[in-house]
Amino acid sequence: MKRTYVLRGRKLVEKPKRRYEAKAPMVIGDIQPYFCHQTGSYISSRSEHRQMLREHGMIEVGNEWDAFSDQPHLRDFEPTDESSDAPQWAIDEISEGLK
Questions:
Q1: What is the rounded distance in angstroms from the CA atom of residue 51 to the CA atom of residue 38?
Q2: Cα 65 to Cα 87: distance, rounded to the nearest angstrom
Q3: For residue 95, what pLDDT is reported?
Q4: Helical (H) or strand (E) element with 96
Q5: What b/e string do you get for 34-60 counting C-beta neighbours within 10 Å, with b at 16 or more?
Q6: d(CA 38, CA 50)
Q7: What gap in Å lies between CA 38 and CA 35, rounded to an integer?
Q8: How far is it, in rounded angstroms, from Cα 47 to Cα 31?
Q9: pLDDT band at 45, cuts 50/70/90?
Q10: 3-state secondary structure of 73
């Protein structure tokens, strides 16, 4: 089972699992109309926005998917002594917790 840790002061502690129970339906509102410089027209809905992106071969930054990336997944990244930005004490605490 995957465990998640958080840093509390200088100590790594296991993050408690929380379950969010919505008290009402969650609805995402539509986007505000905006002027698209690519087409010269106004985009007034999410469907028009997605259609414009498809027609012009564009992607939103932050919404890319792995097919566009040659980079390895971060979850597959194994830090080395040279590449690690994490403090050594944090790495040691995680390693001890996994044994």
A1: 13
A2: 30
A3: 73
A4: helix 88-98
A5: eeeeeeeeebeeeebbeeebeeeeeee
A6: 13
A7: 9
A8: 10
A9: very high
A10: coil
